Predict the structure of Gamma-glutamyl phosphate reductase.
Amino acid sequence: MNAEVDVRNAVRAQGERARDAACVLARSDDRARCAALAAMARALRAHADRVIEANARDVADARAEGVSESLVDRLLLNPERIEDAVRSLGELAALPDPVGRVLEARTLASGARMERISVPLGVVAVVYEARPNVTVDAAGICVRSGNAALLRGGGLAVRTNVAIAALLRAALVEVGLPASCVEYVDAPGREAAEEMMRLRGLVDVLVPRGGRSLIDTCVRTSTVPVIETGTGNCHVYVHTSADPAMALGIVLNAKCRRYGVCNAAETLLVDEACASEVLPAIAGELAVRGVTLHADELALPLAAGAGATCLPADEHDWKREYLAPHLAVRVVSGLDEAVEHIRRFGTRHSECIVAQDEAASAEFCARVDAAAVYVNVSTAFTDGGQFGLGAEVGISTQKLHVRGPFSCEGLVSYKYVVRGEGQVRP
Amino acid sequence: MNAEVDVRNAVRAQGERARDAACVLARSDDRARCAALAAMARALRAHADRVIEANARDVADARAEGVSESLVDRLLLNPERIEDAVRSLGELAALPDPVGRVLEARTLASGARMERISVPLGVVAVVYEARPNVTVDAAGICVRSGNAALLRGGGLAVRTNVAIAALLRAALVEVGLPASCVEYVDAPGREAAEEMMRLRGLVDVLVPRGGRSLIDTCVRTSTVPVIETGTGNCHVYVHTSADPAMALGIVLNAKCRRYGVCNAAETLLVDEACASEVLPAIAGELAVRGVTLHADELALPLAAGAGATCLPADEHDWKREYLAPHLAVRVVSGLDEAVEHIRRFGTRHSECIVAQDEAASAEFCARVDAAAVYVNVSTAFTDGGQFGLGAEVGISTQKLHVRGPFSCEGLVSYKYVVRGEGQVRP
């Protein structure tokens, strides 16, 4: 019990230090923040050995615990991956300064002059899984946008993350900024994460990056505003007017490019009118790639006939984010049913229509409520880098504040500054 | 227990109807939405008698319950106030359409064309006190911005609000939109409000308008994203360089224009170097207006000497939002102490510096973290109408999504629409 209280107090103290650092950062200029990113990059490159050594111990422990190789791969850092992180810091420094912009200026009826100016959010907390590159990206994005970062990655990566944070903090001090612009919460256990969610007044926004259960816990527990990210039950809808070869290419890319990512397609919807023409070819190619299909009763014979491994689908399948070589398949009567299916089961992440008919695709774009709606383009493009935003904090699936992939520009707010000569309101 | 379940189910059913209506609204065009506002205005004007009759019964009940006259005044509607509400709908219709704007357009590296387009949030829930004009304003702002409104006002106003909602819903149907674009939750008891806070997946944002306890309940209970509004512990800081007459005018206006509003000043901070010159005059005029001062030990003799009713202030006073003829007064050593005081006790609403020294005011603007920072202007201007936004949903004191007074423009999100010819990601 005392240990629990100690953890909570320690996390709160980190929140307070981050808040103090945020006040300093808010007054820093663009040059200082870019200098900080450059120093962070130099420190990572110069002392990559420390990070790799810590990472080797994390990886050894993870393997000893029997963690799956795909998770170990996410955890693993090597010189190449550290170089990627360093490059990402350089790209962030090259982005335009999101802070201090005059977004609006006007003279009020009283003669007072009003400006709306972009300002950092303050303290940004990010809770994520055992992917150490996120530590670098999140710290870099926060500092670039004038925010202090309160970070907590998965327990498997704790040594790696502590080593990274130590380098980043030393780099901040080197350029005259407080070390606490980056606070890494290394206390173990659920209490530490829960306390982060309750630092109301110290933390301005909490971004959970991870699976649905992490995000649901944050939404339920947090008294700090949350930006929900990442759950993607994405659909590809093949309209009657689709070019069959294009449909095949998009489905294969959206499903098979990477299975474990939130922008991967999880359900294929095919118009009844073109199902017998389109579906066997798609099912055949998916079979070659080892994808199991969960098909409704109309799709099942077409897919099975093409040699695919098929299971009968039920409503449970329409809801699943497989993140694996599985794809739900449903034959729909047309656009209305497809839109209704997406409305019921989608997670508002990325949705695609394959269609040559422009009226159909325009209607799909207007009616489907998602962060990204694609016409004849793979859902795999929903990504900060692909959207030209640089490294991303996450992909927001909510509609408040930011939607879709977001980076520095998503971590600012604004303030109104009103100047006058004694104006009072009648 | 069963009654409680019934209430929850009824509220959820309203949420579902609002969600369906939001889908229709999202596809409506600007003309239809403006026609709806016009029909709502006509209906209110044509059937004002029904609203006034319902209101008279609410007012009679409130008086019978011994409700204070200031609350009764907020509850009361008369032909003039209804005409104000009608005018406010007309002003909303005149605002530019916030929906369907292309906020950004670019061609991605793959050749696909991306647009970022403003879209309604979807369903906006507003929980407020017994002020029936909010029912009209909130419904109008939501419909103007393409959102369905799920509304719940204070129990004292339930007959009035039900009568207003009936008129607004009939008006919506008259122009071919679903009645459920406006759903009024008239079920009594805490369960109804709580259920509104838990309509995750149906409601996109919850805006509590009211006192701190309502807002705190929403933040703790809600699983829907919340926009916090309204708690204002606002400060006026009189810098050494201030023009004394200007300082007097601003303090009187910020404190005494209206006591019960969130943009009223609650604490006066005065630089030590000018306190003996400035404070007696201010205290004397506040005394004339019946304002009690809660003064620290340096301010107390100066204020008392000028004839003001004074009580010694403690830390509790620095935190209070009096919403009454009371003002905390503290003498500070200078800008640093003033900024630190505001940082510790302020609610990030509206903060004012009175100063002729431009370096001092620039530093105040940069360091004070609030929705609105004023230089030589009264805090009373923090208001949607004064800021040129028209009727406001509320005044956000958080930094996520919107800050300060917000209206239609604060109730939109965006979606990315990406069009191509079969682009896949390597």
Observations:
- The mean pLDDT of chain B is 95.
- Residues 377 and 395 of chain B are 18 Å apart (CA to CA).
- The domain at 2-229+399-419 of chain B is CATH 3.40.605.10 (Aldehyde Dehydrogenase; Chain A, domain 1).
